[in-house]
Amino acid sequence: MQDVNQYLIKQSDGSIALKEHVKESLLPYAGSIKTVTRMLATKLFTLSERVSGNCKGIRGQVQLDFARLELLKSTVFEVCGVSYVEQDKVWKNITAAVDAV
Q1: Tens-digit pLDDT profile for residues 23-75
Q2: Is 55 exposed, middle or buried (0-12, 13-18, 19+ CB in 10 A)?
Q3: What is the reported pTM?
């Protein structure tokens, strides 16, 4: 079973951050938001979480962990250089990509 904690750093305030080497491994794919999203989702969520959950917790599935979703979101925006103006539109595409993983 996959241990998603191997990719995370727990901050002193209780929040989580992504280990730098994981973020760096995504940089070659920065031109494709879907690719970065899918690669990161497979690291942040176990297979069973991805099968039984989705981003919004709809259609009879549970919602994926909110803190890890927010981490995924901010990391994809950072790695792919998504401007503030585009973030809402891009987030809709990100949720579709995560739910398809």
Answers
A1: 999 999 999 999 999 999 999 999 999 999 999 888 888 999 999 999 999 99
A2: buried
A3: 0.90
The answer to whether residues 41 and 2 touch, using CB atoms and an 8 Å cutoff, is no
Selection from 9, 89, 73, 79 nearest residue 41 by Cα: 73
Q: Under 8 Å CB-to-CB from 56, ≥6 apart: which residues?
A: 63, 95
In single-letter form, the type of residue at position 77 comes to F
Contact (Cβ atoms closer than 8 angstroms) between residue 94 and residue 76: yes
Q: Which residue has the tokens 């176990």?
A: 46
